[in-house]
């Protein structure tokens, strides 16, 4: 079992809180209690619960015909039922517009998102968009008398700074724990695709996903996301992770504008600069990444980057390793110009590139749903004047989930969950969650059929 436990799992046992000692004076003023700050923050932290419908979807459309069902004695379909799902936390970031942030995994697969405000009011939230790769979701609610938390500059926090984690789990109203920033820039943990976590020993208990990590002035510096729980116990051992609010802000801006995140790319293959490689390239430091390959007609090629260059900075930000570069480029908006600093033949060169949108060509369907694992998906274009595109199955690995689900090499996927799909980029919009069943409309040669992948 993965040692990193999502915080939306309902548990019956809580671990003891890990509290750090607080300073007596901040900014020259005595701080006898955190109560005034906490009181100002609590109205901006809300409880989130979700509900989803239990569906009994039949793969054969004839089963919807009452005469057919009566003639063959097919029992009536079960009625859709609503069932409660995850409980987590959210943070109000814009009181006028009713904008609330939380983790993607808190609301994943939900039909309805219920928000309980600090004063007890309950409202239904609208999902404006989410990004599973960073685990951020943006919600909107209609309510007056809202209080938003002020977002700070998370790039300015330091290891050792005191922080407070505020959550609203299980309808228990707020929970507040204190601690310090234990580490910054944590990555390579396998929790998300893009990781740049703030690590803290402030207790982040189950149900606090999407909650607020604030400084002693009550400013929002991060969104609580995951804990390290040895043995999969779910208990807190003083190692929690929060997404920096600057990273969240970049995602939110794109979700507001596009309803999704459009990731950028340079078009390069890279590897970490090991000590041996640094020595071979005549570089004293082993911070940076080596350019191993460059895509044709890519931003990197147009910028003049060469194979063997060592990339050390992007827009003045140091690049320590491949994870650093992935986070920096992945968070940039498509179309922006970036300044790159590389070392070539022992000399520093300054280059500039225009970030282009990531182009999906052929990918394993597991990226979108575990039901599609083993299917190599891509896009083909017909020969008509309209040049229509279709989602195409280039290959299916024998014995994979996609194989047992019924997909075969050469299938055209016309729709997913009754919604038309023409590109790989559209798939995440129609796949409810990686765990949910899929109803596919497929064309196989001259035959059209429905496939229910459970």
Number of strands: 30
User: What is the makeup of the main sheet?
Assistant: 7 strands, antiparallel
> What's the overall average pLDDT, rounded?
80
Give the end-to-end Cα distance, rounded to a whole number of Å.
Answer: 23 Å
The name CATH uses for the topology of the largest domain is Thrombin, subunit H
CATH class of the largest domain: Mainly Beta
Unreliable stretches covering 5 or more consecutive residues: 1-18, 55-63, 67-74
Shape: globular
Estimate nothing, just give the exact number of structural domains. Answer: 3
From the coordinates shown, what is the CATH architecture of the largest domain?
Beta Barrel
The class by helix and strand makeup works out as: mainly beta
Q: What's the alpha carbon Rg, rounded to whole Å?
A: 25 Å
Helical proportion? 10-25%
* Distinct helical segment count: 9
> What fraction of residues sit in β-strands?
35-45%
Task: Describe this protein with a few key phrases.
single chain; 454 residues; mainly beta; Thrombin, subunit H; Pdz3 Domain; 3 domains; 7-stranded antiparallel beta sheet; 6-stranded antiparallel barrel; 9 helices; disordered N terminus
């Amino acid at each position: 079992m993965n040692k990193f436990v999502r915080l939306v799992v309902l548990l019956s046992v809580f671990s003891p809180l890990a509290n750090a000692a607080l300073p007596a004076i901040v900014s020259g003023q005595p701080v006898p209690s955190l109560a005034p700050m906490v009181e100002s923050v609590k109205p901006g932290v809300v409880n989130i619960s979700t509900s989803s419908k239990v569906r009994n979807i039949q793969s054969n459309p004839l089963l919807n015909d009452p005469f057919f069902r009566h003639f063959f004695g097919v029992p009536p379909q079960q009625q859709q039922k609503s069932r409660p799902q995850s409980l987590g936390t959210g943070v109000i970031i814009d009181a006028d517009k009713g904008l609330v942030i939380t983790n993607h995994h808190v609301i994943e697969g939900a039909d309805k998102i219920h928000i309980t405000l600090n004063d007890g009011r309950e409202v239904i939230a609208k999902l404006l968009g989410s990004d599973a790769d960073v685990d951020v979701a943006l919600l909107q609610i209609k309510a007056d008398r809202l209080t938003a938390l002020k977002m700070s500059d998370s790039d300015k926090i330091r290891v050792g700074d005191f922080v407070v984690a505020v959550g609203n789990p299980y309808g228990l109203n707020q929970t507040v724990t204190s601690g310090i920033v234990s580490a910054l820039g944590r990555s390579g943990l396998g929790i998300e695709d893009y990781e740049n976590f703030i690590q803290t020993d402030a207790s982040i208990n189950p149900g606090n996903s999407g909650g607020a990590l604030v400084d002693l002035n009550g400013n929002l510096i991060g969104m609580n996301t995951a804990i390290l729980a040895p043995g999969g116990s779910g208990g807190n051992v003083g190692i929690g992770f929060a997404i920096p609010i600057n990273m969240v802000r970049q995602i939110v801006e794109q979700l507001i504008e596009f309803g999704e995140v459009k990731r950028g790319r340079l078009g390069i293959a890279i590897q970490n600069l090991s000590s041996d490689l640094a020595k071979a390239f005549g570089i004293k430091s082993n911070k940076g990444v080596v350019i191993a390959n460059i895509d044709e007609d890519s931003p990197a090629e147009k910028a003049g980057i060469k194979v063997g260059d060592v990339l050390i900075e992007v827009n003045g930000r140091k690049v320590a390793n491949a994870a650093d570069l992935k986070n920096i480029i992945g968070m940039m908006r498509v179309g922006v110009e970036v300044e790159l600093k590389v070392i070539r033949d022992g000399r520093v060169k300054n280059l500039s590139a225009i970030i282009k949108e990531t182009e999906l060509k052929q990918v394993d369907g597991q990226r979108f749903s575990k039901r599609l694992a083993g299917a190599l998906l891509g896009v083909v274009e017909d020969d008509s004047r309209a040049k229509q595109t279709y989602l195409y199955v280039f290959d299916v690995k024998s014995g994979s989930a996609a194989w047992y689900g019924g997909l075969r090499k050469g299938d055209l996927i016309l729709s997913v969950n009754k919604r038309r799909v023409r590109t790989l980029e559209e798939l995440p919009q129609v796949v409810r969650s990686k765990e949910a069943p899929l109803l596919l409309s497929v064309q196989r040669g001259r035959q059209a059929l429905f496939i229910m992948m459970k």
